[in-house]
């Protein structure tokens, strides 16, 4: 049961930070394009912040650290992939 809760918490946490990253990506992509070069660094810092938050709360929350970390990374990746495809599709129109 604790593993399932850990996976759900990690998925929710990763999806939240993935959505934050997607919103920032959309704002930068729809702008004048001056920050496109810094976009990958910004997204990397957001992903690092999400995973660091899981790491630093590992002793505070009664969750399995490994399951939470892996599911947060999976959610970050999936949301980033979906957001990239949606951003690319909206730029084609």
- State the end-to-end distance: 46 Å
The biggest beta sheet, please? none
Oligomer state equals single chain
The beta-strand count equals: 0
Helix/sheet category:
mainly alpha
Helix-strand string: HHH
Estimate the strand proportion.
under 5%
Number of domains: 1
Distinct helical segment count: 3
Average pLDDT works out at: 88
Helix content, binned percent: over 70%
Shape annotation: elongated
Uncertain stretches? none
SSE map:
Elements: H1 2-30, H2 36-56, H3 65-92
Helix pairs in contact: 1-2, 1-3, 2-3
Plain-language structure description:
It is a single chain. With 93 residues, this protein is mainly α. The protein has helices at residues 2-30, 36-56, 65-92. The longest helix has 29 residues, at 2-30. It is built from three helices and no strands. α1 packs antiparallel against α2.
List keywords for this structure.
93 residues, mainly alpha
Task: Please sum up the structure shown.
The protein has 93 residues and is an all-alpha fold. It has helices at 2-30, 36-56, 65-92.
């Amino acid at each position: 049961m604790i593993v399932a809760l850990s996976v759900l918490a990690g998925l929710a946490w990763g999806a939240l930070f993935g959505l934050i990253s997607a919103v920032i990506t959309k704002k930068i992509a729809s702008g004048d394009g001056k920050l496109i070069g810094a976009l990958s660094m910004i997204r990397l810092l957001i992903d690092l912040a999400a995973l660091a938050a899981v790491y630093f709360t590992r002793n505070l929350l009664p969750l399995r650290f490994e399951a939470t970390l892996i599911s947060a990374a999976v959610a970050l990746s999936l949301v980033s992939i979906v957001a990239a495809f949606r951003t690319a599709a909206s730029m084609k129109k």
